[in-house]
Amino acid sequence: MRHAPSTPWPQSSRAFRLVPLAPLVALLAACGDDAGASFSDVGNWQDVTSDTASPTDTNVGGDTWVDPGPDTTPPPPPPEEEVDFDLRTPEAGQTFLYIPSAALDALVIVDARSLDVHLVEVGLVPTVVRALPGDLGAVVLNEGSSDVSIVRPLPAVGGVAPDPAFSVETVQVLAGANRLELAPDGSFAFAWYASPRGATFASGSLQDVTAVDVAVGREVAWNLAVGLRPSEILFADQDRLALIVCDNGVSGIRLEALDRDVFLPPIPTSPDAFETPLDREIVPSPDGRYAYVRSLNRQALGRVDLQTGELSLLPLPDYASDLELTADGLTAVVPLKNTQRVAVIAVADAFTWTAPEPEPEPE
Question: Can you give the pTM of this predicted structure?
Answer without folding.
Answer: 0.73
